[in-house]
């Protein structure tokens, strides 16, 4: 028997992340699991410390984290909050894949769901893939989804009938 108690969806607020969140909602409902939704905000202190004024960076970092938290809350629905044991999280890191894997380890995540962008070979070569890095180092299974996706998630029969 597969026991899934904690599902993690990592989001960057893109279309593929929206699809991943929809999958996460369905998995959490199916297993009665808690749904963790994680956004990793960029660490501007690590990225721009040598090029920027040190007095401006902490304020910029706070604003970035606040905006990420607000966007995360706006992405989640009242039904998510009411029925999915929702755990919204914003972390700051210069390495999003490492932050996702660390969070999964710390909280005992059973399944990670990520959206993938499907970049071309050259972009992948130079930029790499957060999803690929997570798959390689995650402590649990990882489901990656694309946008547009094939029609894997179908509405429940009762929901379909109710809408007619």
Description:
The structure is a single chain. This protein is an alpha/beta fold and 164 residues long. Helix content is 49%, strand content 20%. The protein has a 5-stranded parallel sheet, with helices on both faces. Strand 1 (6-10), helix 1 (15-31) and strand 2 (34-42) form a beta-alpha-beta unit. Helix 5 (96-107) runs parallel beside helix 7 (130-137). The longest helix is centred in the middle third of the chain and has 19 residues, at 57-75. Residues 122-127 have low confidence and may be disordered.
Short description:
By secondary structure, this protein is of the alpha/beta class.
Order of strands across the main sheet: 3-2-1-4-5
- Anisotropy-based shape: globular
The SSE order reads: EHEHHHEHEHHEH
Strand proportion: 15-25%
